[in-house]
Specification:
single chain; 2 domains; HNH endonuclease; hydrolase; endonuclease activity; endonuclease
């Protein structure tokens, strides 16, 4: 394999994968790492090292004294600062590059739902972009929470939702920000969206008066055990306290 400098596009693809896999999977034997290495015509170890280099710039990791590799290239720093506050562009641009490298359509490459797509035109393009970005957001959130619900610990991907703290329709600039997401099971995602539960800025679970006033066997089983408990925090991209405060003030039915 060629020993060559990493290009900007390659750095973008590395950042894409960094976001979409758990930190514990950043190693040369993980299938997704090996797949990207093959796409880029690089060694598995080289790609794993590049992903680990991004850890140096992650504030959530720095707060826990996790630094990744101590040395890295300027390219990781540039890409981190370009896209860390521009998640929508990262998702769309990186998935486009990945599809191009695979010589595939972005629909197939990103694995989005193709049902009900118009055959052609602007509407199709808009829907595809939205679904590609939503897929990237889901993968990033589930990877950050190691594919388990931050309330219950349920670890069945089919039952997990990448839930927005501030709704998709409200926070246009933050809709792709992983710090605006929580990994919840489908029941608690619905309760969170409807304001029946919330998470405080210090990461504790609150139950609404509606829930507390309607205690029965099911409420006692599925909600009361988590009252005032602390959520399981993600490995990276901690939920932003400002977003949690917004949910407490605007959605939660205290």
């Amino acid at each position: 394999m060629a020993n060559k400098n990493w290009t900007r596009e390659e750095h973008i693809l590395a950042f894409n994968l960094y976001c979409k896999i758990p930190l514990s999977k950043i190693n040369s034997t993980y299938p997704a790492v090996k797949e990207l290495a093959q796409i880029l015509d690089r060694s598995d170890g080289s790609v794993a090292m590049k992903l680990a280099n991004f850890m140096r710039h992650d504030p959530a990791l720095k707060a826990r004294n996790v630094s990744g590799l101590k040395r890295g290239a300027k390219g990781e720093e540039l890409i981190w600062h370009e896209f860390h506050g521009n998640w929508e562009e990262l998702a769309w641009q990186s998935e486009q590059i990945l599809a191009s490298k695979k010589i595939d359509s972005i629909e197939n490459s990103s694995g989005i739902d193709l049902l009900d797509l118009p055959k052609e035109g602007k509407e199709r393009e808009t829907i595809i972009k939205t679904r590609v970005n939503q897929s990237f957001f889901r993968k990033t959130i589930l990877a950050s929470y190691t594919e388990s619900c931050c309330v219950t610990g349920i670890a069945i991907p089919q039952l997990l939702v990448a839930s927005h703290i501030i709704p998709w329709s409200v926070a246009l600039k933050e809709r792709m920000n992983p710090s605006n997401g929580l990994c919840l099971n489908t029941l608690h995602d619905k309760a969170f969206d409807d304001g029946l539960i919330t998470v405080t800025p210090d990461y504790k679970i609150r139950l609404s008066k509606i829930v507390l006033d309607n205690v029965d066997n099911q409420t006692e089983k599925f909600f009361l055990p988590y009252k005032n408990a602390k959520i399981k925090l993600p490995q990276r991209f901690y939920p932003d306290a400002k977003f949690l405060e917004w949910h407490n003030q605007n959605i939660f039915k205290g």
